[in-house]
Fold:
Amino acid sequence: MDTYAKQYLELVSHFYDLFKHDLKNYQNSIFMALDLYKLKKDEKYLEIVEEASQKSLEHIETIKKIEPLVYSGSHLGFYSFYACIDKLKKKYPDEEFELNGNDVCVFADGALSKLFNLLILVTAENDKKYKISFTTSEFQEDGLNKCSIRVDVHNF
Structure:
């Protein structure tokens, strides 16, 4: 497995572990507040239980949203940005695209091209003539090669 892929999977694993840790903290807050309520019979501790329960539910909903990304097996790898845009040009021949900068290899999953396809669909909904400009740049950070992709939509 590629070094970047390993780092990505480790990062996702740590991120997921942090979510589980936070959820555990919320549950501990609930138990402690219930114990205090039993001892002191003060309603403010029930408010803490309610708040921590709500945060737990919100946390679970967030986890449910990211689980498909974590476990999707959605073809992690390096994708040519220009190849993604070339697919868009073929799919939407009447749309105007501008590419600035060099082709960059993006470490992503198979949804990368779908993301840009969605951008075209949302932009096309306004029934105005437009041009989408993509500008790429490359840089190094923490010893890793990285890239930036800037997207500008110009209405005519």
Notes: The beta strands are 77-80, 96-100, 105-108, 130-141, 144-155. Helices lie at 3-40, 44-71, 81-91, 112-124.
